[in-house]
Amino acid sequence: MSNKDYSRALAFDFGASSGRAIVGTLKDGKLTLDEVHRFSNDPVTLETGMYWDILRLFHEIKQGILKCVNSDFSDFDSIGIDTWGVDYALLDEKGRLLANPFHYRDMRNNRLTDEDFKGVTRDEIYKATGIQFIWFNTMFQLMADLKEDPEKLERAKTLLLIPDFFNYLLTGEKRIEYTNASTMQMFDPQKGEWAYDILKRLGIPTDILPKMIDAGEMVGKLSPSICEELGTKAVDVVAVASHDTGSAVAAVPADDMENVVYISSGTWSLMGMEMKKPCITEKTRELNFTNEGGVDRTVRFLKNIMGLWIIQETRRQWQREGDDLSFAQIEQLTREATPFKCFIDPDDESFATPGNMPKRIVEYCKKTGQPVPETKGEIARCIMESLAMKYRMTLEGIEAVTGKRINCINVIGGGVKDKLLCSLTASATGRHVTAGPVEATAIGNLVVQFMAQGKIEDIKQARKIISNSFPTDEYEPENAAAWDEQYKRFTEIIK
Questions:
Q1: Pick from 34, 312, 383, 399: most CB atoms within 10 A?
Q2: Interior CA angle at 456 toward 293 and 168, to 5°?
């Protein structure tokens, strides 16, 4: 019998550009993190499309386990995996991968037409699923498969979302986890089952959807072959909140989640509230809010906003041009630039795909009759102020739908490190901003594992532990009159 006075778990947290293996140690009511492996996540573009290099990513999972085994953290008791949502792997009748999964930014979905929807209206889809319309939702991707590669779907016997596919490779068990399944625009949150009628009318097969399990349930144990290869014991593989935002929201360190708005800030900005029931109305459809799943079958009522992707892609363009600016250098240039020169709509389709983002920003400003940003600082300032303004617009939508006055916004995730954006968010929204923790997704992944291990009682206790374990920064609004005036201008520009 072990005499350990602590518990350990291993979290794999995949983002759109990188992944990490992080060990969490729970001792005396506090959680500490140790990163044991980090790797890039680079999509591969071919003439046939944009794909995830999925088998290399699984190799990195095995490397993360191996590094734990050969370190002081070899006594971990469980593994949990979270990734982005919507993308999927298709398996044949023998459990073999049929093709590399498409990247959600692949353009095949843009080739869908109204005829492909077979008379099913957007209103019907939204009423059934409560999910906002984004071009890469799983439903749209499967419709693209039906249109462009129907033979692949005919051969498919199982569909697994990306974290479920990794769990399958580790355990041999085919399961689909609720929080990620809820992002597919194929699940009816009011009935608690697949939206069978809509899927049938669209021609999307439902017999390929495996058994659904909840965050905190066991998928299975590491398979004998994995244990032999990596020299590890057969630990439990836990279905955490496998959608990365689901894990991030689980780590919001707030006592009163029903009156706090969160922003999970990273490549995407996911802004919303945790609710007990879905909110699906004509107003929420008009404002394009979504109802995704959370831990304990809560609902993440939120809006997807194009987040730090725009500044990340802008930096990549500058690097291609020979100017390798760090994010710290970009932030300093942003601080030095003149405020409120111009705005963009971060969610405009012109900013959705890789490319020359600075050029697109200039073109957007010309098209909307604004002064054109001329320096790198002005371009970055335009991006950051526009994001902050979009947060304000989204907050107003949340308050209109819920009838609540929200006094606090909690920013979590990598965007917490961008102190200027956090400050701009407070000023644009006129609300107090609490920023942290940075590693929210990995932390949420870990606390659900500890709940599954019986080491944490429930999500409420988990959030108290998180609050006691990780520092936060506080921001207050500034220059309210100037921001109010410029917000009117912003709303006129992006109409």
A1: 383
A2: 55
176, 217 Cβ separation under 8 angstroms: no
pLDDT given for residue 109 in this prediction: 87
Active site residues: 244
Query: Residues 13, 34: contact at Cβ < 8 Å?
Result: no
Q: How far apart are CA 170 and CA 394, in angstroms?
A: 39
Do residues 151 and 90 make contact, with C-beta atoms less than 8 angstroms apart? no
In the predicted model, residues of the chain with pLDDT beneath 70 are 1-2
Q: Kindly list the distances between the CA atom of residue 475 and the CA atoms of 336, 385, 410, 428, 482, in Å, as whole numbers in the listed order.
A: 20, 16, 10, 12, 18
Parallel, antiparallel, or unpaired for β 7-14 and 18-27?
Answer: antiparallel
- Strand positions, DSSP E, 294-393: 299-306
| pLDDT of res. 2 | 57
Q: Helix, strand, or coil here: 486?
A: helix
Cα separation, 170 vs 340, in Å, equals 51
Tokens at residue 25, please? 């140690």
Q: What is the rounded distance in angstroms from the CA atom of residue 69 to the CA atom of residue 63?
A: 10
Q: Kindly report each contact of residues 219-225 with a partner whose C-beta sits within 8 Å and lies 24 or more positions away, as own/partner.
A: 219/167, 219/170, 219/171, 219/173, 219/175, 220/167, 220/170, 220/171, 220/172, 220/173, 221/171, 222/79, 222/170, 222/171, 223/170, 223/171, 223/172
Give the helix/strand (H/E) hosting 14.
strand 7-14
Neighbours of 55 (CB within 10 A): 10
Answer whether 139's CB lies under 8 Å from 185's CB: yes
